[in-house]
Automatic annotation (TrEMBL):
An example molecular function term from Gene Ontology annotations: oxidoreductase activity, acting on paired donors, with incorporation or reduction of molecular oxygen
Top-rank taxon, per record: Eukaryota
Annotated family: Belongs to the cytochrome P450 family.
GO cellular component, one term: membrane
Name the UniProt record assigns to this protein: Cytochrome P450
Compartment(s) where it occurs, according to its Swiss-Prot or TrEMBL record: Membrane
Keywords: Heme, Iron, Membrane, Metal-binding, Monooxygenase, Oxidoreductase, Transmembrane, Transmembrane helix
Amino acid sequence: MYLFVFLVLLVALALLRDFLLLLFRQLCSPLRRLPGPPSPSFFMGNLEQMHDMENNNLIANWVNSYGTTFVYRGFIGGCRLMTTDPVAIAHILGNAYHYPKPDFVRESLASMAAGHDGLLVVEGADHRRQRKILAPAFSAGHIKSLSPIFWDKATELRDIWLTEVDSASFDPGRENSITRIDVLVWLGRATLDVIGLAGFGYAFNALTDDSNELARAFSVIFSTARKFRVMTILQAWFPFLRRFRRNNAAMAQAKATMRRIGLELIDEKRKAIQHERDSYLHEPAKIGPLQDQSTARSQGPKELRGRDLLSVLIQSNLSSDASQQMSEDEVLSQISTFLAAGHETTSSALTWCLYALANNRPAQEKLRVELRKLDAADRTQQSPPPKSDHEDLTERIARCGYLDWVVRESLRVHAPVTNTMRVCMRDEDEIPVQAVLPRKSNAQVDAIDDRGRTTMDQNVDIHGNRRSTISVRKWDIISVPIQAINKSEAFWGEDAKLFSA
């Protein structure tokens, strides 16, 4: 009994300590001097308001009222900087290692990626090292070499959809009915197949079979991570509570499945690469005159380097250079990280692009005319062109100017990632700003722009003082609303919210 009471008191004291520390940071934050919307709640600030109005009108209204750089309230009334100012954003993202992702964002990403060692989660020196190791896998040449996988899966998906449409047309009871296809589900399966083959040489076969255990395990982890839980928020802000984190049985089993299959993939790749390397070393003719045995042993033949993602990781682990090595846990985390990043966002972006085209018949017809000039696989062809023709077709598609415009415009209007957050890790810093739209009555007006808004070439705080920079301190959180910027009339004109292809 006494032990239980003692433990409860320890937890309460730890919570009180962290709570007071948060309050102290807010009281000392220079962000308190900036204007911003009123907070409807002390504990949740403007967060619930932003969640309920998950569109850009709210942020656009804030920009019109308080300028391009202002403060909103987060958890426990914490001041958070939000900016759509291009100069400020360039400073923040251009100094990424001084402005990493906040701890609670990294925890959220780690839960979706089933690990804390993936590229999306790590920061600082570990991020530099991993990015350098992974760079060859994302070079233009390597991505281009993966085009046969893209063609094969795109054609397979096309055939499935055509079969569904054709089968409905021959159904006597559905002569005048409309065939409905849930494109998000099918695109999700297709992108899962692509990332499996291109990233790890693993066949999910999701387009034809939904029983793959790795696919199901990933689905459990990803869907569980996206669920809203109060305890998850508390653990993000009070790190000591993470010691009490518990996984449910389904989550634990899913993680065990991902780890088991991941280790099997790593072992298979390692053996294959080592076998090819050993064969290479036993044939001196393949080693160039300027390449010594030690270099050949550490690098192997060129065809071993820069294939799929997992091969690059295994190759780095076989390198004699310690700075180019990843641990086994890091490799496992990359597998789940790129499953999450390469699967969900891609299928979502493709779905929104099709939605935009479905609502814009002229754009749809114009794009169809351009693509039909490519002489690509037609409706009667049950497979993509021969692999020797893949490269030529890929280059021709890359020259399709209108297709490029449609994709870019779709990504602008329907950004897969709508927001990014950073935290200042410098003791103090000054973030430069380009312009704001002040609305304070005591602010001196320099000019009125062509839209009737008061503008100044410097920032104005709540006291009406001009500022060319924004002062921030360590642990101050900054939010960059990507989707709001993409739909800003100040950047894109009066039709910024429309898909204008």
